[in-house]
Amino acid sequence: MDRIRITGGIPLEGDIPISGAKNAALPLMAASLLTDEPLQLANLPHLMDISTLANLLTSLGVDITMEGDATEDGHIGRVLTLTSGDLSGATAPYDLVRKMRASILVLGPLLARAGEAQVSLPGGCAIGTRPVDLHLDGLTELGAEIELTDGYIQARAPRGLTGSIIRFPKASVGATENLLMAATLADGETVLENAAREPEVADLSNCLVSMGAVIEGIGTDRLVISGVPHLTGARYRVMPDRVETGTFAIAAAITGGDLTLRHAQGALVNAVTEVMERAGVETWEDEDTLRVRRNGSAISAVDVITQPYPGFPTDMQAQVMALMAFSDGASMITETIFENRFMHVPELARMGADITISGSSAMVRGVKSLKGAPVMATDLRASVSLVLAGLAATGETLVNRVYHLDRGYERLVEKLAACGARIERISD
Ligand code: UD1
């Protein structure tokens, strides 16, 4: 199994191209199931999760072709053309779904287009129980008949879906996306209240509109969808990855470096740059770049609470904790979105971090330095927080279970090495 070896202590300097957003790309790919015409998606990141969903879609009969998409600075996003002419089936099997929880995103579009869907109950990151009740309750509201048998969600809508008013008891990104896609082909109007406002939901909405869907309230927590009989093909460019942007911003801060993040949208990471500014890190935003610098100043301790967008993202909690491990004070980090999302804490502690967990909060008392160590993590963002800690620690850090990183960070080692990091991937 591959590992990443880092020798820390080097301030990172240079430019990093930001890839297309994984969490926007996945629902956009699932949206191809809604039409029999080609959907061309540009700026897709080259990631394991994207390949996993491509395999699942292929097994459902979607024809997928791929090309490169180079920009002037050599950044290559992928262009996928997905054509769901005749669907060959409506079953998403366990073997494919267990690799990635986001596979549940095929449920809504399959049901809307084919009138039936069987999707294995999902697996994915080990961060809490992560139920799918909001997806299923919402689809039931649209008239689907749903049963859970043998580990599968069996959904049927033989007479099609019908618009309805759905008020989510809790904002969920995935449930909003599934319901949004299903509602585009439902009969009549659907209102989604307390919808997730994450930018990836808006990206999906904008793509659906370019496919002929009628959606009002994009970017708000109330989406009104007027169903149409069919959608068409379209071309759409995936938004930049805000979690990757935030992660590299913290890489600059934690190493006392100076990084310019290209193809980024600073506005998408305001909650993160705000915390960094309060910590004493300088940030500058331009049209499509974000520059982040820490010039020898100490890192001030800042309290952080994860919240739905536009609050501080749960997907950046582990990374900001790595930064706070080096602060000159004590920082309280509270996780409100997922239970069991502190798996990076014992690993950071192995490197010398002083962190105490109490319920959903972690008290991080800053230390002068961390020491490299062999570490292991069990989810995507936890793994990258260990890479960040390793970049700033003294000595050598070995990060095990690199496959978590391959799920969500495109060319992570190459991008960091190009800015001076002593980092390499080693295969056993
Ligand atoms: C998405 C992101 C993930 C991010 C998360 C929160 C993708 C592919 N993944 O995950 O990176 O961390 O948003 O920003 O976009 N919940 C229920 N019932 C449900 C669905 C969710 O109780 O049916 C709960 C979850 O357990 C969690 C909360 O709602 O506590 C938010 O989860 P949700 O927004 O659905 O996360 P995902 O869409 O899975």
Question: Which key terms come to mind for this protein?
Answer:
24 strands; binds uridine-diphosphate-N-acetylglucosamine; 428 residues; 14 helices; four-stranded mixed β-sheet; alpha/beta; 30% helix
Structure overview:
The chain is 30% helix and 26% strand. The radius of gyration is 21 Å and the shape is globular. α1 runs parallel beside α2, α8 packs parallel to α12 and α10 runs parallel beside α12 (380-392). By secondary structure, it is α/β, with parallel strands linked by helices. It has a four-stranded mixed beta sheet with strand order 22-23-1-24. β20 and β21 (361-365) form a beta hairpin. The chain has helices at 22-30, 48-59, 94-97, 107-114, 133-141, 173-184, 199-210, 242-255, 270-278, 317-324, 344-350, 380-392, 403-408, 412-417, and strands spanning 3-7, 13-17, 39-44, 63-70, 76-83, 91-92, 116-120, 145-149, 152-156, 165-167, 189-193, 214-216, 222-226, 234-237, 258-262, 282-285, 289-293, 304-305, 330-334, 354-358, 361-365, 374-376, 396-400, 422-426.
Bound molecules: uridine-diphosphate-N-acetylglucosamine
Q: What is the approximate shape? A: globular
Main sheet, how many strands, which sense, barrel? 4 strands, mixed
Oligomer: single chain
Beta-strand percent range: 25-35%
Short précis:
The protein has helices spanning 22-30, 48-59, 94-97, 107-114, 133-141, 173-184, 199-210, 242-255, 270-278, 317-324, 344-350, 380-392, 403-408, 412-417; strands at 3-7, 13-17, 39-44, 63-70, 76-83, 91-92, 116-120, 145-149, 152-156, 165-167, 189-193, 214-216, 222-226, 234-237, 258-262, 282-285, 289-293, 304-305, 330-334, 354-358, 361-365, 374-376, 396-400, 422-426. The protein has 428 residues and is an alpha/beta fold.
